[in-house]
Amino acid sequence: MAILPIYAYGHPILRAPARPVEGDSPELQQLIEDMLETMYQAAGIGLAAPQVGHSLRLFVADLAQPSGGEGHRGRPGKPEVFINPEILAVSDVEVEYEEGCLSIPEVRERIWRPEVIRVRYQDRDFRWHEEEMGGLRARVFQHEYDHLEGILLIDRISAFRRRLLRRKLEDIAQGRVQVDYLLAIASPAPQVVR
Ligand code: NI
Questions:
Q1: Cα 163 from Cα 154, distance rounded (Å)
Q2: Is 80 exceeded by the pLDDT of residue 155?
């Protein structure tokens, strides 16, 4: 297993709609393992393939980590893999919740999203599942699904809030940010900062 650099805000791959996963391969299974390892190391509860430089419709999550992952680095709870996910229906009722993103370190914003969603996806064995979900599970699913569409949480805040974050976002894009995981930045040239 390998820890992968996480692409920071500003990298174009985070803005590209991802391609469907066509089929299983040893490389895909390896990528899944690496993504889980990378997510745990960065103390995240979800990680999408574009965030590690693969424009594929795939994300991993673990909602069973103690305290949602914070401070429990490297301790898996219940790792889950979502391949070719689809959102089939969403509730009219929306709820607000504070979100962060490993690609946008040090930024946390309150985001409104549908409270309950109906989804389908393939697991890592390519079996289809259809499921209705709410709570943190629905929240993480929608955040990670957004990554596959090239959408980031800062697209879902007000123009006013976004203006307040402008300098911070520039700093992140330039790698002027303190994180304890590998961050890959696009500007001025691709490089890894620690
Ligand atoms: Ni994210």
A1: 10
A2: yes
